[in-house]
Amino acid sequence: MELNSINIHKLKKIPVEGGNVLHALKKSDKGFKKFGEAYFSWINPKSIKAWKKHNLMTLNLIVPIGKIRFVFHNTMYPEVFRVEILGEGNYCRLTVPPNIWFGFQNLSDHASLVTNISDIEHQDSESDKAEINTFPFKWSEY
Amino acid sequence: MELNSINIHKLKKIPVEGGNVLHALKKSDKGFKKFGEAYFSWINPKSIKAWKKHNLMTLNLIVPIGKIRFVFHNTMYPEVFRVEILGEGNYCRLTVPPNIWFGFQNLSDHASLVTNISDIEHQDSESDKAEINTFPFKWSEY
Prior knowledge:
Two copies of one chain form a homodimer. The first copy, chain A, is mainly β.
């Protein structure tokens, strides 16, 4: 899948006394397909989780805590990577269609949290994994 | 609505190298109705957000960070409150049907985060608010 099919959408933070409210995903949002599952994934300081490719699942990725670099790759273009940095300072939702390799790295000194709201439930059989050195992205350069 | 109609469901934390994965809600989970919206609500240390009642919305409340006391109330039984403490140490999902008054309080020294996955989109017109002293719950006692 082409990397420009990944959609980035700025999300609202609403100031509320006692603690802010942060939007994530509405049924009426442009590009929303259907709900399958919501789950959280922590990523520890200095950690990298890479690579994974979903063959059926569309992801909606939101980072309410910390700062995470997401890297996307299409094997048709071996040297090309798309990078998006999400977190408290750039509070957005990434909608990622299936058939794109991706990895992510914590850029914060603390643990960061990704929420994924996907259109189908998790099943190992619809995803592929690859070792971090499978694709020539230079993770240390930031 | 009767307070025993609030459902509590233990959620899985899956150990993963680089950061754990935490379940939240699947389409196939018992009691799941439909997806309307997902959003986050921070609650600052020592803060209380109370009271609110949704007239149409069913809530799915999950606390991936911190420790929060939720208090539920049905005005048919003026002295009765149902209390559930959720957070990292008791990682559960609360499913709350409409027509129940609720409030919540941060019991952690740090900010805590609630995720709500609701069956309809947020609209102010379907909820009522009341001042904290409207119902005789003793928030300071814990």
